[in-house]
Amino acid sequence: xxxxxxxxxxxxxxxxxxxxxxxxxxxxxxxxxxxxxxxxxxxxxxxxxxxxxxxxxxxxxxxxxxxxxxxxxxxxxxxxxxxxxxxxxxxxxxxxxxxxxxxxxxxxxxxxxxxxxxxxxxxxxxxxxxxxxxxxxxxxxxxxxxxxxxxxxxxxxxxxxxxxxxxxxxxxxxxxxxxxxxxxxxx
Length: 187
Description:
- The chain has five helices and ten strands; from the N terminus they run ββαβααββαβαββββ.
- The chain is an alpha/beta fold.
- It has a single domain (4-186), classed as Dihydrofolate Reductase, subunit A (3-Layer(aba) Sandwich), CATH 3.40.430.10.
- The strands form two sheets. It has an eight-stranded mixed β-sheet.
- Strand 9 and strand 10 form a beta hairpin.
- The longest helix is centred in the first third of the chain and has 14 residues, at 50-63.
- The chain is globular, with a radius of gyration of 16 Å.
- The model has no long low-confidence stretch (mean pLDDT 95).
């Protein structure tokens, strides 16, 4: 059975974006970039909300061939560009990025069917609204939270207004940068 995995970078105080949506506070270094190449391997589908989809669409399609892009990001770009992508948006009318499907509503039964299909796991990057909705529906099977050694004090909380869910820690991986990757499962 395929899993829906949420992966997000957050500040120590739980924000996944700054007040204006910025992510320039992410602590990313060579060690993280090497790990990111391996961390994308278990997935063949990315689930997005509109904002994150547009951010990714503005960067990753060109990153694969841009000589200024790091080797690791070129590898990730090639992988992301080939993966299936699902974007949930009530405002977009079309999507142009290769292998992208646009849906206007979250249908829990449809997502349950996706989990039964053959293939690798599905990942949600960013997309706070989608994360909260799928959390509330009990559709996220694993939470991967990369805690950055930064206190923002304000911004967009990842789980603002989400229903309470008890999580069990499955793994914790510290990085030399001070980042810590925490992996949780519901229950």
